[in-house]
């Protein structure tokens, strides 16, 4: 058995771009930045950012386009896919992206007005963006110091 699963949590680097496929289904593209902090060999704290292209189809695409914008925090679950095409210069181009199965909006405070909800599930009972009853983790206190892997009990 093979597994192709991607899970990222980060912030949108640009507003979602909504388009329609020839079949009429909507598709939205956006990019998510994730970062990590680590110590290099000299013990100096370093930061590294990675950028991920995300594609969402169907009703989720409509919801993402409606509620998310640049700076919004988001959790994306999906699969990795690499597409190839021939550019205008005749050179073969490649793009690796996450095809989202599920998109969850992050907390409002850290993400430019996004609501905390799961757009990957549910029916027509969409709640407005100012509904904060679902929690969203805005009250989570994160440790100020780096986590030492030796302290983890497993």
TrEMBL record:
GO terms for cellular component: nucleoid. Keywords: DNA-binding. CDD domains: SSB_OBF. Residues 100-154 are annotated as: Disordered. Gene3D superfamilies: Nucleic acid-binding proteins. Residues 115-133 have a biased composition (Low complexity). InterPro entries: NA-bd_OB-fold, Primosome_PriB/ssb, ssDNA-bd. GO terms for biological process: DNA replication. GO terms for molecular function: single-stranded DNA binding. HAMAP family: SSB. Homotetramer. This is Single-stranded DNA-binding protein. It comes from Candidatus Kaiserbacteria bacterium RIFCSPHIGHO2_01_FULL_54_36.
